[in-house]
Amino acid sequence: MSTVQRGAFIVIEGLDRSGKSTQAALLQSRLQNANVSVKLMKFPDRTTPVGKMIDAYLRSQSDVDDRTIHLLFSANRWEAVSSIESTLAAGTTIICDRYAFSGVAFSAAKGLPLAWCRSPDVSLPAPDLTLFLDISPDIAKSRGGYGEERYEKEELQRRVRNIFHQLGDELPKDGAGRWAVIDAGRDLNTVSESLWHEVAITIHDCTKQDSVGKLWQS
């Protein structure tokens, strides 16, 4: 029986204004041009009932306790689990703009315990590859639109960056489930080529026999 390739689960993480959404869209287009079935996802998904509550919070239109909003972000990801799993099983690669690492990093940066922040997302589908777009908060601050949402404050972003690096240090740098740090302070095309190199390797390695893992399960 011939091997049927499953889709790869690829997550793009980073500080606000690090170029995640732009690079995710470029990756989607490049994969489509290479005849790879691909779906673009983004968290939070602001279209769901939970997502609409999150959207109001991020736009500073409502105030929610830090623990409550953290659990809402996690619930927003759990809403999508069946879709993620069925999409990957059907052979479609997912490019995901933000995921559980963002949820943990931002909440822990606000002072919540790291272990508590991680616990609601244990057993979510684990990415095959996480691309961390690393950029200094002062460079991110200089980019258009900075400061429009609640979390776009330079000192908070510095704390978030440190926690992202801490989370990344726990993950392998090679093979399945790896974390790749990409210097996002470079020009658009150079960053795009760096991402493409990592993605091409991951898609090649994903097969139907390699079921998607579970996040943060020992």
Automatic annotation (TrEMBL):
InterPro entries: P-loop_NTPase, Thymidylate_kin-like_dom, Thymidylate_kin_CS, Thymidylate_kinase. Residues 12-193 form the Thymidylate kinase-like domain. Keywords: ATP-binding, Kinase, Nucleotide biosynthesis, Nucleotide-binding, Transferase. Its EC number is 2.7.4.9. Transmembrane segments: none annotated. PANTHER family: THYMIDYLATE KINASE. NCBIfam families: DTMP_kinase. This is Thymidylate kinase. It comes from Rickenella mellea.
